[in-house]
Write a structure and sequence with these properties.
about 220 residues, alpha+beta, Ribosomal Protein L25, Chain P, 6-stranded mixed β-barrel, 4-stranded mixed beta sheet, 4 helices, 13 strands, about 25% helix
Length: about 220
């Protein structure tokens, strides 16, 4: 697999003065980690934006800082709320021999018969999973096959996942990933029908009892 490389330089300008850098097409960033001192960095805004666009949060990146190579994960991306452009990036320096934690994107694959044939609605409860592995073993994404969801109410849970390699899932095993539900209108009708049945079932003994009491009163007269 081809390495993802981003070039960076150490940055002296910090704080509010970084606005000047952004106007010059420079993206402020910071690199931190257990084995290094935190380093303010500057990157080419256009190049970095292009590389990071659509990149999985678990992707291992080679950060070239003034000719020195670091393996990093993207920990945070700050964006302009109006334009959506990058304002700042946080990189975590990792060692290839030590496990690292990362969020991994979940991709749903296949076609659910419950959705295709029964008109069910697919509800994805988790879009990412927190995992731990050696940096090179971190999966880019996790495939979840939904073709086994045959009926309304069928679901996939974390405990059903089988990941390749030495990858530890840090989520709860009973966490729900995806489920097939009824469309909202049908669900409301079903709830109303169930409520009506409960009312009728609860009223029936009362009607019988009342009728019996009225019979006994008539006999007494």
């Amino acid at each position: 697999m081809e390495e993802i490389v981003i070039n960076a330089n150490r940055r002296e300008i910090v704080g509010k003065r970084t606005k000047v850098l952004r106007r010059e097409g420079i993206l402020p960033a910071v690199m931190y980690g257990r084995h290094i001192e935190t380093q303010p960095l500057s990157l080419d805004h256009n190049e970095t934006s292009r590389i990071l666009e659509g990149l999985s949060p678990s992707a291992l990146i080679v950060l070239q800082v003034d000719g020195e190579q670091h393996y990093v994960l993207v920990r945070e991306k700050q964006r302009d709320v109006i334009r959506g452009s990058l304002l700042h990036v946080d990189f975590q320096d990792v060692l290839l021999t030590e496990k690292a934690r990362s969020n991994v994107t979940i991709h749903l694959t296949g076609i659910s018969p419950a959705v295709r044939d029964l008109g069910g609605i697919l509800v994805q409860n988790l879009e990412q999973l927190d995992v731990e592995a050696l940096p090179r073993d971190l999966p880019e994404y996790i495939d979840v096959d939904i073709s086994a969801l045959q009926e309304i109410g069928d679901a996939v849970y974390v405990r059903e996942l089988h990941l390749l390699g030495e990858v530890d899932i840090l989520a709860e095993l009973d966490d729900l990933i995806v489920v097939v539900t009824l469309p909202a209108a049908e669900a409301e009708v079903e709830e109303e029908e169930e409520a009506e049945e409960e009312i009728l079932e609860g009223a029936e003994p009362e009607v019988i009892e009342r009728g019996k009491r009225e019979e006994e009163e008539a006999e007494g007269d």
